[in-house]
Amino acid sequence: MPEHGGNLDLAMQRFGGDARDWIDLSTGINRKPYPVGELPETVWRALPSRSAIEALHRAAREAYGTTAAILATNGAQAAIQWLPHLAPPGRSRILGPTYNEYAAVFSASGWDVREVSDLEALAGADIAVLANPNNPDGKRYEPSRLLALLSRVGRLVVDESFADAAPELSLAPAAGKQGLLILRSFGKFFGLAGLRLGFVAGAETDIAALSAMAGPWPVSGPAIAIGERALSDREWAKTTSARLVRDSQRLDREVTKLGWTLVGGTLLFRLYETGNAIRAQQRLACAQVWSRVFPDHNGWLRLGLPGNEAEWARLSAALTG
Fold first, then answer.
1. Would you say domain 8-33+235-320 falls under CATH 3.90.1150.10?
2. What is the distance between the alpha carbons of residues 217 and 88, in angstroms, rounded to a whole number?
């Protein structure tokens, strides 16, 4: 399987401790999660109803600013698994470097997969894939440029998993256009990755096909209840976005003590050029702070944002100690 962040098993195997000892900054998951609160007992013991799922869909449409057809999924990853089955195998072009599951799932389904480094090189693909903002380098693309590309590909998949704090980048308002699919992750911004909730918005025909692949209960009762509650809480989202702006700037200042330079990132993670990422990762791991490295880029190290002052103090000590 492709390598991902969040692999604390590896960290513990190499450096000791258990999960409670570690600060996992290897992912882009908000470490100050949405306060879930109490849930009705029925969400645990009853099958999810159609009306409950539709209420979640309405909350997602309002939060993402779209009127298009939408489908809640078991995390954005579930939708990624189904994408190759929307059409017979053909040419898949992926704007990289990016989330490595896309190449894996298309290759496994018999597609001709190529990673390209320029937006224009996506033209001519039967399915073109990009992330906006991108993971791991945070590169951003103006929505108008992406819409101009739509007529030159069979389908355009835009992964907006890190766009909650950058709504100006979102193509969700245009998701009803034929051939355009927008993927959204719930767990990253809301800090509830274990809930396994995501969304895909697009033309009615594509969403109907994906819904058939998902089956009658694509998400759990607790995910529906928490998702609707969180997506409707726009004040929490506004406050969180403002905090993430401050914290991402704070992290950038912290790492300058070591002479690292900012490659890019989003408000949920930062990517730094360290000169030697393995050495940098080991330095942090000795203080049980876990980070993400990339085999194809020896100097790149990705860090998420600490969730409280105790975590900030441990990270600062690890960077300077």
1. yes
2. 26
207 strand-pairing partners: none
Domain coordinates in residue numbering, the chain: 8-33+235-320, 42-232
Nearest to 118 by CA among 85, 88, 93, 154: 93
End-to-end CA distance of the chain: 35
The partner residues of 181 in beta bridges, in order of sequence, read 157, 202
Distance CA 213, CA 288 (A): 41
List of the chain residues with pLDDT < 50: none
Exposed, middle or buried by CB within 10 Å (0-12, 13-18, 19+), for 90?
middle
Task: Give residue 4's pLDDT.
Answer: 76
Structure tokens at 107: 């290759």
For residues 227 and 197, give the distance between their C-alpha atoms in angstroms, rounded to a whole number: 8
Give residue 89's pLDDT. Answer: 98
Dig out the tokens for 228 from the structure: 């609707």
* C-alpha span between 159 and 226 (Å, rounded): 22
Q: What is the pLDDT of residues 186-212, one digit of tens each?
A: 999 999 999 999 999 999 999 999 999
Class of CATH domain 42-232? alpha beta
Q: Is residue 125 within 8 Å of residue 91, measured between CB atoms?
A: yes
Would you tell me how many other CB atoms lie within 10 Å of the CB of residue 316? 15
